[in-house]
Design goal:
Shape: elongated
Mean pLDDT: 89
Low-confidence stretches: 30-38, 333-337
Helix content: 55-70%
Strand content: under 5%
Length: 1010
């Protein structure tokens, strides 16, 4: 590499720069006021023209203007300062610049004048430092040190101004108003490169603004926080705001404790609590470089002394060391594995970049610095040398990394000098790379490319060797969740995994590491979580919508009371993490249940969790044991919800894992309701009787209808119920302290039962209850007397109400009264309705008309809406119900609450072709399998246009469990449509076509649907 000035890449720009230089010289003022008043315009003009004509001057003007539009503008704008810089030398000119800045701003009361002075000083410093760097007059340490000095001085002047202003406003009391920083309690920490005096050319500055609430003196203690928040906000404005004179430094306050949840200025007491409880290892690494640069130096030093045990831990267990290793292991580094290209490469955070050299030092400092103070050094190169001196790093590695660091920092500075942009990326196009190479002094761009790749490769190899034995925490690329800015490699990795919004993912995971949730507050929990995150993200990425799955997993973590136990379970049982991810990503209902009750995962680990689901005989004693500890009625409701949700969760997990399906699971889910609802009915009646007594000789029963009646519930089904009661003739009221008439008694008792089932509690509702199938629907009473029920069904019921009765069955209530019991009477009444004589033409017409009306309101061309699509559940169920009503009188043996059994019974009685019955029964099972899976995996109806590969495979396996999953969704969709079309043709042939040949009805009155 040459240290001579680089050639101009753009000679046209260089020529225009020279023209501006000569024009500015010609227009020089009589006295520019920046050179102690001893310079006249003529003298400046003469100097400027002579300098431009000299070989040295022309080379500098060409090198600057021909490579950097930004520096070229400053160069020709600041001729007096350039003369001072050239004549006095860089060191003297820079020292003079800082002295003048401090003198000019020390007593400045006007914020606008202060902002102008700081911006002019920064502009001149930027020019001086750049030229000192380009000419090779300054080494890297001098360049970064000068950049840090101008930043530190600017922040200090701004902080002093703001302290003085706060004192004048009466919100602060300053012990020494002439030296406002003394005893002020304000702490401004320079972090990162500023703290280590390693600022890059167009660097942001990272600050943490604190105030020592034990030191600050104020006449307004209630406004203390607001005062320092205002100081922090105004400090950022002074430094960051763009005016006609530019800006000083872009300023970032996000390294403060938990920036998403804390104000811009944080009290020392709050910061101490944060770092003492939930501070992260990357924050420990950041604090290695922390340095008080403004405000109260004693308060700043005291705070850093407090932090020493946090940063420099003397005792580290294996987990803590692994967590430190994670800073490195999250980066996808492989020794000897080269995938780096020059164009567009990020030399800061890309492979082999500056960050890897910094992390190389910091991770080892965190491990060894607790016991060896010799490695507690902020600057990166000095830290590596210190680690070498104590035998922790080979000398060859230190030398290689230092050479690479100096090279990469020079490249970084030239990239930024071009347009004063805070970027670290090599230009993406060849022309841009050639420009950069020229600016660095290369004659041939290929030489630059070769040098850059060689240095990046050396860094990557050394970095890959670090903690080489530890397992990687990266995925197919980086998975870095430390710091405040999104790691570009991590964004790319997450996008490649299928996440739509990588920044949101990074924010969510970072929140976990900040300990905002109870489950992640302990250091041990966060260490375990660090190990889990890559696997967890990978498992969630396999789900149909990874971003949504992550949100649900985040909600799950937020509700966890503690994390160590569960995270340990995940590490010991990776399949459990996979199951949870699958639930979060594919089963919204189960995810909600699991979030409410994370202890369900304990049950998942039990050996029998995936055993076949029990029947009612096995469920009843288990349920009774579960509620045996209830102390009162509310406990029964709570425990009943918990137990039922646990069982539903188990059933859902079985469906997800293909152990069972929606068809086989229907009876189990119905058994749950059959066990719980009667028990609640008995408890409700007992509770109700304490106030209203009982009806002497009275009885009531709960009748299941719809899917519960036919024993084909899904995970999300509501339950259709009706209540029928009977009292002895002449009974006028109940025998309690607040007696009620029989009809009012059973209506209120029914209300209590539905409330007990549907009331939202911590574990949610037990079921949603639909009672619209009772006589007269919503217009009728909630509970119906047996004689009224019988009379209504005989005289007033619509055909659709009789269709509903084909699935009715008594499941509970107090049926002890009477002989025979009320339950038998109700079942006998229902059977009497279904086997009574009826007009075949009316049944046919009514069934066809009801299907037409449902199709008009809910019809769909989407075959995956298996309830309403033609050829779906309704067509098959209506076929079975039609046959039972049509032939029940002559063939009572065909009656069955189970649709498939009714179809097969009809075939056995010669009323339906056996092959049609078998096809419809098989199709019904298919629809139930599909519906059971979709109720778990979608919030609504499946959109065929938005089916992920994961959902397609699961859906295919659920629909056709004995076959290999469909290769593509189109084939699966086509097959489903063909099956639905065949079922629809059977309904048309059996119902719609014959109905269309009937004469018009005598009356046009339409049945009222529920």
């Amino acid at each position: 590499m040459t240290t001579t000035l680089p050639k101009p890449f753009d000679t046209g720009l260089a020529e225009r720069g020279l023209e501006r230089w000569r024009a500015e010289a010609a227009n020089a003022a009589d006295n520019d006021g920046n050179n102690d008043g001893d310079s006249t315009g003529d003298a400046l003009r003469a100097w400027a023209e002579a300098y431009a004509d000299s070989a040295e001057g022309r080379a500098l003007i060409d090198a600057v203007c021909g490579n950097s539009p930004y520096l070229g503008q400053i160069l020709t704008r600041e001729l007096p300062f350039v003369r001072e810089m050239v004549t006095r030398g860089y060191d003297d000119a820079f020292a003079t610049l800082l002295r003048r800045l401090e003198a000019d701003c020390a007593e400045e009361r006007n914020i606008d004048r202060l902002m102008t002075a700081l911006r002019i000083a920064k502009r001149r410093a930027a020019l001086l430092i750049a030229i000192a760097d380009i000419t090779g007059a300054w080494e890297l340490e001098a360049v970064t040190g000068a950049l840090s000095d101008i930043a530190e001085t600017s922040v200090r002047m701004a902080a002093n101004h703001l302290l003085r202003r706060a004192a004048e406003a009466g919100t602060l009391t300053l012990p020494e108003p002439q030296r406002p920083w003394v005893g002020s309690g304000l702490i401004v920490l320079g972090m990162g490169k500023l703290g280590a005096r390693e600022l890059n050319y167009s660097s942001d500055i990272d600050l943490i603004v604190l105030y020592d609430d034990a030191v600050v003196q104020t006449p307004q203690p209630d406004n203390l926080a607001r005062t320092f928040i205002r100081i922090a906000r105004d400090l950022v404005r002074i430094m960051d705001e763009r005016t006609k004179d530019g800006y000083v430094f872009r300023t970032d306050l996000r390294l403060r404790p938990d920036p998403g949840a804390t104000p811009l200025a944080v009290s020392v007491s709050a910061a101490e609590i944060y770092y003492g409880s939930v501070g992260q290892n990357w924050e420990r690494a950041a604090m290695i470089k922390a340095r008080p640069i403004a405000g109260d130096p004693e308060a700043g030093a005291h705070f850093l002394r407090f932090l020493e045990p946090f940063v420099w831990r003397r005792h580290l267990d294996f987990a803590a060391i692994q967590d430190i290793h994670s800073i490195k292991r999250q980066i996808n580094a492989h020794k000897g594995h080269r995938e780096v290209t020059v164009n567009g490469h990020d030399i800061k955070v890309g492979r082999g970049g500056i960050r890897e050299i910094e992390f190389f030092a910091q991770t080892q400092q965190l491990i060894f610095g607790g016991r060896d103070i010799r490695v507690r050094i902020a600057p990166t190169l000095l830290a590596n040398k210190a680690l070498c001196a104590v035998g922790r790093v080979p000398e060859a590695a230190v030398e290689e990394l230092e050479e690479a660091y100096r090279f990469l920092r020079r490249v970084e500075h030239r990239i930024q000098m071009t347009d004063d942009r805070q970027t670290h990326q090599i230009p993406a196009d060849d022309e841009g790379v050639a420009h950069l190479a020229t600016f660095l002094g290369y004659a041939q761009v290929e030489d630059f490319r070769a040098d850059l790749l060689a240095q990046l490769g050396r860094v990557e190899d050394r970095y890959a060797e670090l903690f080489e034995e530890a397992p990687s925490l990266s995925g197919p690329g980086n998975l870095v969740f430390t710091g405040t800015d999104d790691d570009p490699g991590t964004v790319k990795t997450l996008a490649g995994m299928g996440y739509r919004d990588p920044s949101r993912v990074i924010a969510v995971v970072s929140t976990w590491h900040r300990g905002r949730y109870r489950s992640t507050r302990s250091g041990r929990a966060r260490e375990l979580l660090t190990e889990l995150v890559p696997a967890m993200l990978n498992e969630l990425a396999k789900t149909p919508a990874p971003d949504d799955a992550l949100v649900k997993f985040d909600s799950f973590l937020e509700r966890l009371p503690a994390g160590v136990g569960l995270f340990s379970l995940f590490i010991a049982n990776p399949w459990l993490l996979a199951l949870v991810a699958e639930i979060m990503g594919t089963a919204p209902q189960l995810a909600e249940t699991l979030s409410r009750n994370p202890s369900l995962l304990d049950a998942v680990l039990s050996p029998d969790f995936f055993d076949p689901l029990p029947d009612a005989a096995g469920l009843t004693p288990e349920y009774q044991r579960f509620i045996a500890g209830a102390h009162n009625f509310e406990d029964v409701l709570t425990l009943s919800r918990r137990w039922t949700n646990d069982q539903r969760f188990r059933a859902g997990a079985h469906i997800l894992r293909g152990i069972t399906d929606g068809d086989h699971c229907g009876p189990f889910l119905a058994d749950l309701a059959d066990v719980v609802v009667p028990e609640l009915a008995a408890r409700v009646e007992e509770e109700f009787a304490t106030r209203h007594g009982r009806i002497p000789g009275g009885a009531w029963v709960v009748v299941a209808m719809g899917k519960l009646g036919s024993r084909q519930l899904t995970i999300t089904s509501d339950i259709d119920l009706i209540v029928v009661y009977e009292v002895p003739p002449g009974t006028r009221q109940s025998d309690g302290t607040k007696p009620l008439a029989p009809n009012e008694y059973y209506i209120k008792l029914t209300q209590r039962l539905t409330n007990a089932i549907t009331a939202p509690m911590a574990d949610g509702r037990l079921y949603e209850v639909d009672m619209r199938l009772r006589p007269s629907g919503n217009a009728g009473p909630l509970a119906t007397a047996l004689d009224a029920f019988t009379a209504y069904q005989a005289k007033d019921a619509w055909t659709w109400e009789h269709m509903a009765l084909t699935r009715a069955r008594v499941i509970g209530g107090d049926s002890a009264g009477g002989d025979p019991p009320l339950g038998h009477k109700v079942e006998s009444a229902i059977r009497g309705v279904l086997t009574g004589p009826r007009d075949p033409a009316k049944v046919l017409r009514d069934v066809a008309d009801m299907r037409r009306r449902i199709d008009k309101e809910f019809g769909t061309a989407n075959p995956w809406n298996v309830k309403y699509a033609r050829g779906g559940l309704i067509d098959i169920e209506f076929t079975a119900q039609y046959l039972q009503l049509r032939h029940g009188h002559a063939h009572p043996e065909i009656l069955s609450i189970a649709t498939s059994r009714a179809l097969l019974n009809a075939a056995a009685a010669g009323l339906l072709a056996p092959e049609v019955a078998e096809e419809l029964a098989a199709t019904l099972k298919l629809w139930r399998r599909v519906q059971g899976f979709l109720r778990l995996t979608t919030d609504g109806v499946l959109d065929p246009r938005q089916v992920s590969p994961t959902l397609r495979e699961g859906l295919s396996r659920a629909a056709f469990p004995d076959e290999e999953p469909a290769v593509d969704f189109a084939a699966l969709d086509s097959r489903i449509r063909d099956i639905a079309a065949r079922a629809h043709r059977h309904f048309v042939a059996l119902v719609e076509e014959p109905a269309s040949r009937l004469p018009p009805p005598e009356t046009n009155e339409e049945a009222k649907l529920p």
